[in-house]
Amino acid sequence: MTTLTPDPAMAETATIAALEVSGLTAGYGGPPIVENVSVRALRGAITAIVGPNGAGKSTLLKAIAGVIKASAGTVTVEGRDATGLPSEKLVRRGIAYVPQVANVFPQLTVQENLEMGGYSRRHGLHERTEELYQLFPDLKLAHRRHAETLSGGQRTMLAMARGLMVDPAVLLLDEPSAGLSPKFQSAVWERIEQVRATNVAVVVVEQNTRETLRHAQWAYVLVLGKNRLDGRGRDLLHNDEVVNLYVGVLS
Amino acid sequence: MHEALLTLGFGLVTAAILSLSALAFTLEYSVTNVANLSHGEILTVGAYCAYLVQQHGGGVILSGLAAAAGGGLLALAVHNGVVDRFVRRGIGGLPTFIATLGVSLVIQNILVIIFGAANLGYTVPQGAPRTVGPFLWTDTEIQIMVSAVVITALLYVIIQHTRFGKSLRAVSQNRSLARVSGINANRVAALTWLLAGLIGGYAGFILAESVGTFSPYSGFSFFLITLTAAVAGGLGKAVGTLVGGIIVGIALEFFGGYLSASYNLAFAFAILSLVILVRPRGLFVGGRRSIFE
Question: How far does A128 lie from chain B, in Å, by closest CA?
Answer without folding.
Answer: 15
